[in-house]
Amino acid sequence: MNKRRVSKTIQVGGVSIGGDAPVRVQSMTKTDTRNVAATIDQIRVLEDCGCEIIRCAVPDMEAARALKEIKRGISIPLIADIHFDYQLALAALESGVDGLRLNPGNISDPDKVAAVVRAARERQVPIRIGVNFGSLPADLDPRLSVPEQMAEAALRHIRILENLDFDLIKVSLKAFDVPTTVQAYQEIASRIPYPLHIGITESGTPRQGMVRSAVGLGILLYEGLGDTLRVSLTGDPRDEVYAAYEILKSLRLRERGPSLVRCPSCGRTEVDLVSLATSVEKYLAGIQKSVKVAVMGCVVNGPGEARDADIGIACGKGKAVIFRKGQPVRTVDEADVLSELMREIEQF
Amino acid sequence: MNKRRVSKTIQVGGVSIGGDAPVRVQSMTKTDTRNVAATIDQIRVLEDCGCEIIRCAVPDMEAARALKEIKRGISIPLIADIHFDYQLALAALESGVDGLRLNPGNISDPDKVAAVVRAARERQVPIRIGVNFGSLPADLDPRLSVPEQMAEAALRHIRILENLDFDLIKVSLKAFDVPTTVQAYQEIASRIPYPLHIGITESGTPRQGMVRSAVGLGILLYEGLGDTLRVSLTGDPRDEVYAAYEILKSLRLRERGPSLVRCPSCGRTEVDLVSLATSVEKYLAGIQKSVKVAVMGCVVNGPGEARDADIGIACGKGKAVIFRKGQPVRTVDEADVLSELMREIEQF
């Protein structure tokens, strides 16, 4: 695994991004931003899931103004997602947002860009430049590869901000295609000092999106790229936060809650492993502890993986051995496995 | 993306693995192998999902003998998963299996190993050596890292086969931990010429398992490692095949069926994108064509991503533009979007 790329650190509200800060998990609301109550409700649910930064679409002035009240109802930093209209950006800043997602090159009048940047600087509010494969400018050098074009598009926006002496910048380069996305980030990584927001755009159904995002974001993080991430999924945004943590946990970049190792079960399994593991899973869903629990169904791989967990069981015929931090603690009857395991986890 | 590692090609029944062959998708039955009818039923379902090789656990002689009848009922190559007992391996070969998963070092008597290898060679049946982090031998050099130990454990088994002049070998090195697994495969990749079977073991709940496997297998494939894969998931093995193809498709290594690009929807969306995309998804689930369909909800990223698809729609207020291979074809009313899109896909 590559060492993490060194980037500047920026502050989005109380949350640092880049440098040595943990890779941050963010999401985007699916509600109508003008519906303040619904938006606050959704954000609070996401906060409980571990979402660290939230973004809202700002399609009009009413939405920009609603951000003020939304901000009062939530605990995590709020980012306004703006396109084209500089007045929405100014209004969002007025509303007290902690970050903007805005491509300055999409605002044609330099004075209007300068006004937004001035207001952002006064409030020390960072701006994320977000280039999407789906909306590249038409006048890029066609001899460049698509990833190079994406990086070039981002650099144009970045130069506009830098020329206004603004460096509270975060950059994303998203596409549906994983290799394109990875190459685009690699392309820009060495050319700018700013933190990277990583994501795969428009990833299809939740299941497909989870897999595609895990592949793409997994590769980027493994390559040392990425300071904050959003998993874009259609449907419930809680799934975005869940998947983000699973990706980060799988690479040991973040910890969150309990993790359950269980064998997929096969013809060797002599206990009802699926129902046992499902019961354990339900129990773990209710606790916050970062504990690694292993539920193994047979004697082939069971003891080894169970030993590696904080608490483990390796089931045999009618019996199971409970392990604690690598040490076998005792053998229990099949009927008592669940209660004994829960007791061990509680005591851990 | 790294160029794929060059490996020997082996044949598992009619399916080639390694070399220039496509990265193969395999799964493992969850049925009791002794229950021939249930096992055949499950394998047939998996064949329909695109599973190319199937493995069955062989816990006893009855299971080893059942493989003969199972083999007659299915169309894809069958691999017998054997532990410890060489007689089960011999019986499985008698039953006509196309591959063995067996670690020769687990059979203590060299004559018994030689008997199995002789029978496998006669039938030109390959053997997969599968090292799991959970069952490493106790006498490995403790100064080695865990991935080095895993590679070393595999090399011991490989040398036993090579000393018997047997080279129809495939190797896997699995662990729950993604970085460990990736390093283990990197460790062995340059030291052996054989194809690699990749996987992440015992990956927890189906959702967690899908994400972890996608991260781990995605990284390995991106690094150019992996000639066949199994996504180990608790529950329905169809999910294993689905996830395997999604991982391969995301890196453009395989194509299978239609793919749907849809935007995650946000506060900008002015049509009921979720229900539209869900309808399109249901329709696509019933077709086999490799067609890329884009359903986009707004004018920001919509037109670009829709243009990149074979068939795309970019929705605006009450209307949508249909694209065919990058060209806008016509504008249709919101009410007709679904039927018009389906017509385009049928004609594609």
Description:
The structure is a homodimer of 348-residue chains. In chain A, helix 2 runs parallel beside helix 3. Chain A folds into 2 domains: 241 residues, Alpha-Beta Barrel (TIM Barrel); 89 residues, Sulfite Reductase Hemoprotein, domain 1 (2-Layer Sandwich), CATH 3.30.413. The first copy, chain A, has an 8-stranded parallel beta sheet with strand order 8-7-6-5-4-3-10-9. A 5-stranded mixed beta sheet of chain A has the order 11-12-13-14-15, with helices on both faces. Chain A has a two-stranded antiparallel ribbon with strand order 1-2. The mean pLDDT of chain A is 91. Chain A contains 11 helices and 15 strands.
CATH class identity of the largest domain in chain A: Alpha Beta
Strand order of the largest sheet of chain A: 8-7-6-5-4-3-10-9
Oligomer: homodimer
Number of helical elements of chain A: 11
Strand content of chain A: 15-25%
Q: Bin the helical content of chain A.
A: 40-55%
The low-confidence parts of chain A are none
**Annotated CATH topology of the largest domain in chain A:** TIM Barrel
Tally the structural domains of chain A.
2
The CATH architecture category of the largest domain in chain A equals Alpha-Beta Barrel
Shape of chain A: elongated
Structural class of chain A: alpha/beta
Largest beta-sheet details of chain A: 8 strands, parallel
